[in-house]
Amino acid sequence: MISIYSQIEQGKAWINKYRGNLPVFACVLGFTETALIPGISAAGSTPEDRKYTACADAEFLYYGAEHQPQYSLPPLTAGASPVLISRAVVEALKIPVYLFNAGLPQFPAVPAIDLGGSLAQCVSTGKAMELATVKHLLEQGMIWGDRLAAEVPQSYVILSECVVGGTTTALAILTALGIDAIGKVNSSHPICNHQQKWQIVQSGLQKIPHSSHPLEIVAAVGDPMQVVVAGMAIAASRRCGVILAGGTQMLAVYALTTAISQALNLFWQPTEVIVGTTRWVAEDPTGKTVDLALSLDKISNTQGTNPPLLSTQLSFANSRYTQLQAYEQGFVKEGVGAGAACIAAYLYQNWSQSQLLVAIEDQFQRLCQSKV
Predict the structure, then answer these.
(1) Domains (ranges, CATH) in the chain?
(2) Which pairs with CB-CB distance under 8 Å and at least 24 residues apart come from 106-110?
(3) Model confidence, pTM
(4) What is the C-alpha separation between 101 and 107, in angstroms, rounded?
(5) CB atoms closer than 10 angstroms to residue 244
(6) Beta bridge partners of 100
(7) How confident is the model over 308-348, as pLDDT tens digits?
(8) Could you report the per-residue pLDDT of 79-96, keeping only the tens digit for each?
């Protein structure tokens, strides 16, 4: 149920170390006004819908299908929200969930920990956030990374995200850190909109100095989730395992974590950190996810610091719902830690493909019934 694409021996060692352990699941919510650009993301049919995607996903993740939400899951061009996958796992396995508001246009209607951040302006502005906000969010990330790790000293934390437009900010961060990421990132579209992303990123990067400090890069072209999760990963890795739950966005966070730890001389344990995603991301024919993972050691002073990239082999090919089958056509792919949740289900309870599919389809059926 799990494939390892990079740093295979390190990935196997991580799996063996944490097999059978119950993790905690953290989801960091953020927003970038990049998401309001028409066509930039399929995580919400319209720019207006995309303002509320993170709040809707957070509610569903926390409360489940029967809850009457303040923010309903937004309509998608095709497919269904990946939060259905994450919720299926955390509900069935009783995985503790922590939600963090790193910077949203509105407060989510869930018990979320407010980190005192702010939403980000569009990448193209080259001034996404105030540097003071970025520094504050890094500190908060490290504080909470340590607290989360204290909950699972023998296990691991799943650090997930919900940021619409986040693969574009990821492209910006990776490029600014010196990684050749053009044409390699993923998206929620079946065919990645590489040219659109690059035009937006280029516009922002032209406005910042080439040799910027990593925190200045985030302030210029990042989003609030990235620096929070980087801080969490640094602190948590000192005490437990870490899954950076996502594809392109978490590869960017890993790169940022490496750069921040070097720039600020912060100790962390890279061998405790893996990137966990879905097969639809890792094997996306319109991106180059594995190449991207293998290139991350370029920002390190030492070789071999690209992360193990793992994916669940979950398939919806035999699903009875067309909305889930859409994943097999390249829609949606990942989000809200969906891939890492499936990896956790396998590691903790040895869940099979059929068990995952039954649990996820049950979530979808209950969601449909709740709307009747």
Answers:
(1) 2-365 (3.40.50.10210)
(2) 106/51, 106/52, 106/55, 108/29, 108/54, 108/55, 108/58, 108/59, 108/71, 109/55, 109/59, 109/69, 109/70, 109/71, 110/58, 110/59, 110/62, 110/63
(3) 0.97
(4) 8
(5) 30
(6) 28, 113
(7) 999 999 999 999 999 999 999 999 999 999 999 999 999 99
(8) 999 999 999 999 999 999
